[in-house]
Amino acid sequence: MSLSNPQGRTVLFAASMVSMVLGSIHAISVFMEPLEIEFATSRANVSLIYATSLVFLTLAVLFGPAIYSRLQPATIYLWVAVLGVVGIFLAGFADEIETFWFGYSIIFGIANGLGYGFGLQFAARANPDHPGLAMGVVTAAYAVGAVLAPYGFEVALSLGGLFSAMLTLGSVVFLVGIGASMLTAHSGARYSYAQPAPHIIGVQWRRIAMIWIAYGSGVAAGLMAIGHAAGIAATAGVAGWTAAVAISGCNLIGSLLSGWLSDKVSHRSILTVLPLGGAAALLALSIFPGLALVFLGVVGFTYGGTIATYPAAIAVLFPGEDGARVLGRVFTAWGIAGLLAPWFAGQIYDWDGSYGAALLIAAGFGILSAAIARKAIV
To answer: Where does the pLDDT of residue 183 fall: very low under 50, low under 70, confident under 90, or very high at 90 and above?
Structure first.
């Protein structure tokens, strides 16, 4: 399980640190009320800031492979640092919500997708003996950032309001990005393979489409539950924050464990068992709401394992530069699921006043994911 390559460990550390600070983008709920007050706007308008950031994050992952091999790793991390601090500082100095949206959602969203997508690929290539573990660690680091960031944001908000929080976040992103740039430059690690594999994306478009559906339905099941974890727990009489902690902590464990297992067990087995386990937990949650924390923890675990294993599986199925390109295309399914699944669950709740039907639909997505992954993944 150990990573014995010193250069690979350096790259993994740099990629993980960048991934962790970028994971803070998923803690934007802390800013919901301050943004409403600051710009005298509605919750719906504020929600668009996060939704749009996910869109540009996804686009950066999609188009990122076009530049990964054209620039030095240190240069890419330098761009992440610069774009990140410019976008976040622009948001911090904003007098109108449109300016905040442009800085945070577009510029920082692009920096986020560039740093996360590149880090996944770079860490795997720098650790060729344990690519799945490397990707799992980077994915887990992203989850750690989402868990830890709210505490730092709360402190910054209490000390100096929204401006202070943005100043702190931008400074951290810049310093970590510069540090990663210096580390990777010193390590001498390169991104490109000496002999790129032939392009086979066009030949296997049907398999890519199946993986896109399997991945999208798998993460939709998790995102639907994760997006409403606090509400689901509240209906069972459980404090919402405990549900968020349980699901985030298990997400982290699932990313690490599945990343490690993906180097030892077939990806097909993992990507069949995980969504089925998540579906079973969602079904059980609809029947036994009093055990919300337990079943939401299982959902978090299976979601974390899913998002950690698919990049490793794609890297094996599509070697060389094709792996990054295919992951970019498949990752668009996550962007769509992130936009639609939580919203759809909210609509169902508004219609009948409970999450029962939403949980059943989410379980159905999990079963669909397992069935398609069984055929598309080898």
So the answer is: very high
Helix pair 73-92, 6-22: axis angle to 10 deg: 20
pTM over 0.85: no
Six-digit token string for 54: 């996910």
Closest residue by Cα to residue 308 from 176, 219, 187, 182: 219
Instruction: Give the closest residue to 372 by CA, choosing from 238, 207, 224.
Output: 207
Closest CA to 51 of 346, 329, 302, 312: 346
Task: Convert the pLDDT of each residue in 61-90 to its tens digit.
Answer: 999 998 998 899 999 999 999 999 999 999
Q: Which two tokens stand for residue 136?
A: 């799992």
Report the chain's terminal Cα–Cα distance, integer Å: 22
| Angle formed by the axes of helices 205-226 and 356-376, nearest 10° | 150
Which pLDDT band, with edges at 50, 70 and 90, does 194 fall under?
Answer: very low
Query: Which string of DSSP letters, residue by residue, matches 297-319?
Result: HHHHHHHHHHHHHHHHHHHHHS-
Residue 284 is given by DSSP the state H
| Cβ count near 8 (within 10 Å) | 22
**CA distance linking residue 164 with residue 298, whole number of Å:** 36
Report the C-alpha gap between 223 and 171 in whole angstroms: 30
- Angle (CA) 140-141-146 rounded to 5° is 95
